[in-house]
Amino acid sequence: MSMETVEIKAFVPARDFELSKSFYTDLGFEVAFSSEDLAYLKAGECAFLLQAFYVKEHAANFMMHMLVKDVDAWWRHVEDAGLAAKYGVRADPPADRPWAIRDFVLADPTGVLWRIGTHIEPFQR
Fold first, then answer.
1. If residue 91 lies in a helix (H) or strand (E), which one and from where to where?
2. Which of 52, 60, 77, 90 has the largest CB neighbor count within 10 A?
3. Sequence-ordered list of residues with C-beta below 8 angstroms from that of 58, at least 6 positions apart, any chain
4. Rounded to an integer, what distance in angstroms lies between the CA atom of residue 69 and that of residue 108?
């Protein structure tokens, strides 16, 4: 019996499905598949499922965490694409965190909070 895992994906809620797909493609994801209520989005080897589903309490407490090789390049892309202004979303610049990650915070149009970051050396105390 093999207990090897292959993949795990989250189902991310979308209040406005088409707007959210546009946001994620502008962020750098590719829509590999889409139906009227579900889309498979990927960036490199990372992927998630976007669903046309919205419950305010669920969306307001939903978070995604994505590790990237160059967080500052991703942040420059967010700024250059004007994502915060274009979609009216929160975007906080990168900062070094005590848990040994440099990340930035980005909300999607539904309110899903993303932390996009990279590993750094732990702070010396």
1. strand 91-97
2. 52
3. 13
4. 21
Per DSSP, 103 falls in state: E
Q: Per-domain residue ranges for the chain?
A: 11-119
Tokens matching residue 30: 């590719």
The predicted-structure confidence for 37-91, as pLDDT tens digits, reads as follows 999 999 999 999 999 999 999 999 999 999 999 999 999 999 999 999 999 999 9
Rounded Cα gap, residues 109 and 107, in angstroms? 7
CA–CA separation, 22 and 87 (whole Å)? 10
Secondary structure (3-state) at 32? strand
d(Cα 38, Cα 52) in Å, to the nearest integer?
6
Give Rg (Cα) of the chain: 15
Question: pLDDT tens-digit profile of 5-29?
Answer: 988 999 999 999 999 999 999 999 9
Dihedral, 36, 42, 48, 50 alpha carbons, nearest 10? -20
